[in-house]
Amino acid sequence: MTEGTIRTLIIEDNPDDLVVIRRLLTAKNGLAFDVKHCDELSDGLTMLDGHAFDIVLLDLTLPDSVGIDTCTRARAAAGDTPIVVLTGLDANAVATEALKHGAQDYMVKGKLDRDSLVRSMQYAIERSQRNRIERELRGVQSELHVARQIQEGLLPRAAPQIAGYDFAGMSLPAEAVSGDYYDYIGLGPGRIAVAVADASGHGLGPAMLANEARACLRALMHTHDDPAHLLTTANALLSDGMLERLFISMLLLRIDASARRVTYASAGHPAGYVIAADGLVRRELTSTGFPLGVQQDDPVRDGGTLTLEPGESLFLLTDGAIEALNVHNEAFGVERTLDVLRAHHDKCAAETLDELREAVRAHCAPNRPADDVTAVMVKVLPS
């Protein structure tokens, strides 16, 4: 429907009725009608195939079609275009049946007036648009449900089982699918890579980018295991053809379990933390380069190597928890996040992350966190 104009197809063979309908469909109050007319159904079907209409006014008794079959055939040709059936005074039962076969409304010819006819047409168009939008939303929701299932299948099914360590991860999507992800990638006996990433934004587009980054990282790890080299190579691959303003940050660690040695690099990701046995932060794992997709030729630098002590933890996260806002527009923040970790430092990794998730939810209540919330904790068990 163009602004203020309703494109109308009238399929009506009675010239007297047609004159009445045309007279009623005169411009008024800024509303106009672009009217086309056919007096046989076959011609109407041809018109529907070749032209766009906002509504069809359909007589059920035509020279080449009579009764419900007229409505059924017109409905099949009209697609989403709504149909208002025009009936004689004695055809209400047939008109009611037409509603069951896809007509939006019916009008009795002998009782037509401009206001009731135009109102019926406008309501029919609105209902048709609403029904179309609802169908599209159901389709999108179904696709998102499948995407959500696929994405959940890409997250680690279980925490790694390495003697002397306790691993846990959690991800709370802001929408049906998440732009965050985390991963554990085995590198051989007693060696493992841990990644946490956050694509810009949230929803389906960032989720697709996160999945692409995951696949890229896993493919590269067949030949390399140095975090800085991996992120630099991944940046070159992901930057090629990436949409403007779309990027992904990533913190990548390689853990040599027996030596309790950790090497890391960070592509524009929020700091990770090494938390001592007393709950205090011993070291921050700060960014060593741009996020992936920002500068194709810029390397991600090595963040160095550190040695973990028994009772210490690695804590990696996206910015969803830190930036989660309450009703007073106050961010949850780094200090609240670390306070939760300190308060529950004696618990296992999974329980500690559960406490963090619930604390963020409580902070945002009654709203949900506006961004995806993802975190990984790796605890070195006391000797």
Descriptive account of the structure:
With 383 residues, this protein is α+β, with helices and mostly antiparallel strands. The protein folds into 2 domains: 5-137, Response regulator (Rossmann fold, 3-Layer(aba) Sandwich); 155-380, PPM-type phosphatase domain (Phosphatase 2c, domain 1, 4-Layer Sandwich), CATH 3.60.40.10. Helix content is 37%, strand content 26%. The protein is built from 10 helices and 17 strands. It has helices at residues 15-24, 41-50, 68-78, 92-100, 114-154, 204-220, 227-239, 319-322, 333-343, 349-364, and strands spanning 5-11, 32-38, 55-59, 61-62, 65-66, 83-87, 105-108, 165-172, 180-188, 191-199, 248-256, 261-267, 272-275, 281-285, 305-307, 313-317, 373-380. The strands form 4 sheets. Strands 2-1-3-6-7 form a 5-stranded parallel β-sheet, with helices on both faces. A 5-stranded antiparallel β-sheet has the order 8-17-16-13-14. Strands 9-10-11-12-15 form a 5-stranded antiparallel β-sheet. It starts with a strand and ends with a strand. The relative contact order is 0.09. The mean pLDDT is 86.
